[in-house]
């Protein structure tokens, strides 16, 4: 027998013999999930997760390799173990639901290595999944240390169907791949990906949140919660045994994390259910984050906005003053977008339609050489171009009760941004701004650092905290993907950290299944600034421009509900909305903060239908979307108050609509509905439907028919 094969059998035998003598077992409050944590004779620690008596994660290793001190933290003596139960309910400042229940069984396992290093592992088992983290308690002989590798494994039970993007240290703006685990090929495979700063590291590497479906229909999601002072975790698959190894993003010299006791890692999360809808309803990642540290949150407001933005992406106008955008595809010169008159046009539009705010990009000097230069001093965040009158626009916006959203593109020169941050936020306050969209396009400075490494993780958090000190809300683009930190910092309204709608403007775009995958992947960590609401689907703004959005118009409306976010852009141009004011009514009406959410039906990669109850008004809104296949969305309205009548306005694809050839064909219908109504709406290929449901109240309903 070959040595490798022998070792394989020995290690299986070790694990199995250890399994027999469980160190500890915890179960979820509903008893569906069981987690066993145990040691083998060598003191190696393993965990295993079962759902309804079937293994989800087979025995999987835990531990670290340290550099300085050079130690292996993977063989332990058990010092103690403590099981506790917890059940509490808390209220988010904003969110998908009014109240969140945080109910779990926990075990704290206290360990010591032969080198006398103390390490704890905490496992929390909820009805929706498992979270576990490492803690390095304060101790006399072990203080500062450098992590070379985290040894956490996730040993899956088979060749699951997987929704994945390539592992990368710098970007998550990839199109999704759907394949078996054994078919993961992060080198690109079928798509060429057009991304500015990417750093792939392994053909078997993938990013989290990673969504999987087993052959026996278990839905499994792996991610992390509360990523603070630590690098992000990628995963590398061993295709021989379907085991993922954690792969932390390194720093400029190849180290992973610099820590000092007492220290905690982020939580590793595994959300599991036999229903896809449960995955979307899970609040486990939020529950694993710390409560809000912002004491007074009255200034934090969910909001809708329009902006001088899409016109830049479709090449109608430019960020830079000279009109010849460096690095973009623009060949002919176009006007500078952020000029005072144009911004006023957007402010007028926002004021007329009750939209809270206007984003303005390209207002400040620096855009001439921001892209791809790896230059340190590009922007100063306080010097406007000569045609952007800060004072006049602030006064104008304020007279119309509209806010202007500040834009800070850092060009990933983070050293420079950190030097300017206080001055920039003070400048905002002095001019009446209370929200900032920041951006990190390009390679990071300090050179050699990565978007998802520990240094940048600390920066994103520092920027959010500092913004909170100035009572400023934050929307970060190109940051690390979120891990629920918006619970702790509710001024962190949204971020991008995935492939947004903008890719439809200038690349091969987002395929029609993209928005059916995002809720199961990227959105598991927190809200996304996806920028929905494109009405002019074919982007023929110039004769040579051939791109189009890969959805119907009605699906763009549905995204306001299916893509949860307290910050939602109405991304298209005012003149395009003017063409379809009847459909724009849905964007005006839809809420951005919710008392309740019902996931009506969902399947990753295929379809998602969600109903949400608006905060304050009691109105309900539904979004239903499909992939490239036409489909009937079945929407029972049994969440409505029994016995009460409502008016439902349905915005749906016309019968002959489809994303490619007839994307702007929609139909608007009005019906009386109640809790007994069940709607069946036909969604076009790449299509969707949006429904607003408002209590009848005093409205005259003579001419409105019952839904049937
Ligand atoms: C990329 C962002 O995602 C986009 O929204 C922004 O317009 C550009 N960077 C310029 O900052
Ligand atoms: Ca981006």
Structure description:
This protein is α+β, with helices and mostly antiparallel strands. It has 13 helices and 37 strands. The N terminus is likely disordered. Calcium ion (CA) binds next to loops.
Q: Kindly provide the radius of gyration, computed on alpha-carbon positions and rounded to a whole number of angstroms.
A: 26 Å
What percentage of residues falls in helices of 4 or more residues? Answer: 10-25%
Do you know the CATH architecture of the domain at 19-287?
A: Distorted Sandwich
* Separation of the first and last Cα atoms: 70 Å
What fold name goes in the CATH topology slot of the domain at 19-287?
Beta-galactosidase, Chain A, domain 5
- Average pLDDT, rounded to a whole number, is 95
Helix count?
A: 13
The profile of the biggest β sheet is:
10 strands, antiparallel
What is this structure's SSE topology?
Blueprint: H1 3-20, E1 24-27, E2 33-39, E3 45-51, E4 54-61, E5 64-67, E6 72-73, E7 76-90, E8 100-113, E9 118-126, E10 129-136, E11 144-150, E12 153-156, E13 161-164, E14 177-180, E15 205-207, E16 210-213, E17 219-225, E18 233-238, E19 243-248, E20 257-260, E21 263-264, E22 267-273, H2 276-281, H3 284-287, E23 303-308, H4 310-313, H5 340-353, E24 357-360, H6 390-399, E25 403-409, H7 414-430, E26 435-439, H8 454-469, E27 473-477, E28 492-495, H9 503-506, H10 514-517, H11 553-562, E29 567-569, H12 574-578, H13 581-589, E30 594-603, E31 607-614, E32 620-626, E33 631-636, E34 646-653, E35 666-673, E36 678-683, E37 688-695
Parallel strand pairs: 23-24, 23-29, 24-25, 25-26, 26-27, 27-28
Antiparallel strand pairs: 1-2, 2-3, 3-4, 4-12, 5-6, 5-11, 7-8, 8-9, 9-10, 10-21, 10-22, 11-20, 12-19, 13-14, 13-16, 15-18, 16-17, 17-22, 18-19, 30-31, 31-32, 32-37, 33-36, 34-35, 34-37
Helix pairs in contact: 5-6, 7-8
Bound molecules: 1-deoxynojirimycin (NOJ) and calcium ion (CA).
């Amino acid at each position: 027998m070959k040595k490798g094969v022998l070792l394989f059998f020995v290690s299986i035998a070790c694990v199995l013999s250890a399994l027999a003598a469980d160190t500890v077992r915890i179960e979820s409050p509903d008893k569906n999930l069981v987690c066993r944590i145990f040691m083998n004779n060598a003191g190696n620690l393993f965990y295993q997760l079962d759902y309804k008596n079937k293994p989800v994660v087979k025995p999987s290793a835990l531990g670290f390799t340290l550099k300085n001190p050079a130690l292996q933290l993977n063989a332990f003596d058990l010092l103690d173990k403590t099981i506790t139960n917890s059940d509490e309910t808390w209220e988010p400042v904003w969110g998908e639901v009014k109240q969140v229940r945080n109910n779990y069984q926990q075990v704290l396992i206290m360990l010591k290595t032969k080198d006398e290093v103390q390490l704890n592992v905490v496992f929390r088992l909820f009805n929706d999944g498992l979270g576990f983290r490492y803690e390095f308690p304060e101790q006399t002989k072990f203080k500062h240390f450098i992590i070379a590798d985290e040894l956490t494994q996730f040993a899956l039970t088979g060749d699951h169907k997987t929704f994945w993007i390539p592992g990368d240290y710098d970007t998550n703006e990839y199109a999704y791949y759907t394949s078996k685990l054994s078919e993961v090929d992060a080198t690109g495979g079928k798509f060429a990906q057009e991304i500015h700063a990417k750093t792939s590291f392994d053909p078997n590497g993938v990013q989290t949140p990673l969504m999987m479906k087993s052959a026996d229909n278990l839905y499994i999601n792996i991610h992390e919660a509360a990523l603070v002072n630590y690098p992000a975790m990628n995963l590398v698959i061993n295709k021989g045994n379907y085991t993922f190894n954690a792969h932390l993003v390194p720093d400029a010299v190849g180290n992973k994390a610099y820590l000092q006791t007492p220290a905690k890692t982020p939580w590793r999360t595994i959300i599991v259910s036999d229903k896809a809808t449960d995955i979307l309803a899970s609040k486990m990642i939020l529950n694993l984050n710390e409560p809000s540290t912002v004491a007074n949150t009255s200034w934090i407001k969910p909001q809708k906005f329009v902006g001088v933005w899409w016109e830049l992406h479709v090449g109608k106008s430019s960020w830079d003053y000279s009109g010849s955008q460096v690095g973009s595809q623009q060949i002919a010169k176009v006007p500078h977008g952020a000029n005072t008159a144009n911004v006023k046009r957007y402010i007028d539009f926002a004021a007329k339609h009750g939209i809270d705010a206007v984003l303005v990009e390209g207002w400040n000097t620096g855009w001439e050489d921001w892209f791809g230069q790896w230059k340190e001093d590009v922007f100063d965040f306080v010097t406007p171009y000569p045609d952007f009158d800060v004072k006049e626009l602030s006064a104008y916006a304020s007279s119309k009760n509209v806010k202007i959203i500040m834009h800070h593109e850092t060009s990933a020169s983070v050293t420079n941004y950190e030097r300017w941050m206080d001055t920039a936020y003070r400048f905002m306050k002095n001019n009446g701004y209370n929200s900032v969209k920041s951006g990190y396009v390009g390679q990071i400075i300090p050179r050699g650092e990565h978007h998802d490494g520990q240094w940048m993780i600390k920066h994103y958090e520092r920027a959010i905290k500092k913004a909170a000190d100035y009572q400023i809300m934050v929307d970060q683009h190109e940051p690390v993907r979120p891990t629920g930190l918006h619970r702790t910092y509710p001024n962190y309204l949204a971020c991008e950290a995935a492939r947004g709608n903008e890719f439809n403007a200038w690349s091969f775009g987002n395929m029609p299944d993209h928005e059916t995958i995002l809720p199961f992947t990227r959105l598991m960590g927190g809200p996304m600034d996806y920028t929905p609401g494109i009405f002019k689907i074919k982007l023929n703004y110039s004769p040579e421009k051939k791109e189009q959005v890969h959805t119907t118009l009605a699906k763009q409306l549905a995204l306001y509900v299916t893509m949860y976010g307290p910050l939602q852009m109405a991304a298209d141009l005012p003149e395009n909305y003017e063409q379809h004011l009847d459909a724009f009514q849905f964007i005006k009406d839809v809420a951005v903060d919710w008392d309740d959410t019902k996931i009506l039906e969902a399947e990753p990669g295929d379809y998602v239908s969600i109903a949400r109850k608006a905060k304050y008004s009691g109105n309900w809104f539904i979004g239903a979307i499909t992939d490239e296949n036409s489909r009937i969305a079945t929407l029972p309205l049994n969440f409505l108050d029994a016995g009460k009548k409502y008016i439902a306005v349905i915005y749906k694809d016309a019968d002959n609509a489809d994303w490619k050839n007839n994307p702007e064909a929609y139909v608007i219908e009005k019906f009386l509905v109640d809790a007994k109504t069940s709607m069946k709406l036909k969604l076009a290929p790449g299509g969707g439907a949006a429904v607003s449901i408002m209590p009848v109240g005093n409205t005259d309903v003579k001419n409105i028919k019952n839904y049937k």
